[in-house]
UniProtKB/TrEMBL annotation:
<keyword id="KW-0418">Kinase</keyword>
<dbReference type="InterPro" id="IPR036097">
    <property type="entry name" value="HisK_dim/P_sf"/>
</dbReference>
<keyword id="KW-0597">Phosphoprotein</keyword>
<dbReference type="InterPro" id="IPR003594">
    <property type="entry name" value="HATPase_dom"/>
</dbReference>
<keyword id="KW-1133">Transmembrane helix</keyword>
<dbReference type="Pfam" id="PF02518">
    <property type="entry name" value="HATPase_c"/>
</dbReference>
<feature type="coiled-coil region">
    <location>
        <begin position="179"/>
        <end position="206"/>
    </location>
</feature>
<dbReference type="InterPro" id="IPR036890">
    <property type="entry name" value="HATPase_C_sf"/>
</dbReference>
<dbReference type="InterPro" id="IPR052162">
    <property type="entry name" value="Sensor_kinase/Photoreceptor"/>
</dbReference>
<protein>
    <recommendedName>
        <fullName>histidine kinase</fullName>
        <ecNumber>2.7.13.3</ecNumber>
    </recommendedName>
</protein>
<dbReference type="InterPro" id="IPR005467">
    <property type="entry name" value="His_kinase_dom"/>
</dbReference>
<keyword id="KW-0067">ATP-binding</keyword>
<keyword id="KW-0175">Coiled coil</keyword>
<dbReference type="InterPro" id="IPR007891">
    <property type="entry name" value="CHASE3"/>
</dbReference>
<keyword id="KW-0547">Nucleotide-binding</keyword>
<keyword id="KW-0808">Transferase</keyword>
<dbReference type="GO" id="GO:0005524">
    <property type="term" value="F:ATP binding"/>
</dbReference>
Amino acid sequence: MNATQDAISRTNRVFYELEQINSDYKELSITVRSYVITGDSMDLRHRDTIKSRIEASTDFLETTLLDSLSLAYLDALTEALNTRNETFGEEVIKLRKERGFREAQAFYSENDDQELIVRNIPNLTQNIKGRLAVLLDERVKLSELNAKKTVYVIVLGTLISLGLVFFVIFIFIQDQKKISLHLNEIEQKKAELQVLTNQLQSHNARPLNFSHLTSHNLRSPVNNLNSLLHLYKESQEPSEKSLFFGHIETVTRHLAETLNELMEALKIQEENAIDREWLDFEEIFQKTIETFSADILMSGALVTRDYAKVKKVEYNRSYLESIMLNLLSNAIKYKAHDRVPQVHFETFISGGSIGLTVRDNGQGIDLEKYGEKLFGLNNTFHGHAEGKGVGLYLIKTQLASQGGSISTKSVVGEGSEFKVVLF
């Protein structure tokens, strides 16, 4: 197992232990609450078991996290867990044993630890995940450096090959009867050189494409998570809080899955291959909808789909998720201000090509003015604060690597239609 595989394995295990700590702390709080109500000693034994699991998880993280900043975040997480357990938990249990249900219940209500469960503990675990994402970015930069070294080696090999070609030409040109043979060999070498050049360009572009993929595809779920946390904080009804908390858990799970998929994509990039698998359009669509649940709720957007013509496709998972995520993100981000946003996804098959059409009723794009720049890097056309000019460029780059393409029809003030040919 090479260094990259080790890093992926350790990161996956760290994410699992962090999610386990979140889950165990919720269960710890529920167990204390149950003991206040019932006074059953079984709750106390169960509480001790949960505490042991949390200690085992933090011990593992202490031995696995080698970065000083990650360890500092872990110390803050451990301190929050210990402080809450030793003060709130022990005090409630003591009151229940010595003074009974009423005083323990009153103290529990006054010092309810839902804020710690919903915000503090998840925020501290998210800090650790964020730091690991930074370390992953550093690994990508190192991969780019290695790619440049590879470029130099290939260029040197190309120059040597050209030297050999010219030497062969010089030797054989002395004999006029073999001129035709020499010309054929020259054309063959030129073709080989072109193939080598294309491979070099593709290899050198992959680290940059992966960097854009990582930064851009993580931005939307993180922004959506922040919106859900804001809605949770502002809501007053317990039913609303429960609804938003469920969305927060779903988005957090998808964020962890996205990180895992991106790390797997990094492994594939280093192995100089693009992995494909059979994907269900409905599954990718549902994940995209859940990722943008906060934006859909706040905008009131109506998002529909029709996958009757093509239900499944053999494609790269990270690329298909990125394409659907960016097109939905743009449709909501650049919605019209005077009507409810409507977005429709529909698959199609034309000849031997499979594709996806995405229509919206948003602001539209002036194609006469911006058409040539539409799919360029860092080009924005609506002045939106969150617009970075990366999404459409990333889609075009990913499709081109698979032999696909993207085109658009748009009317200002009415909306846009993007036609994506996957291959």
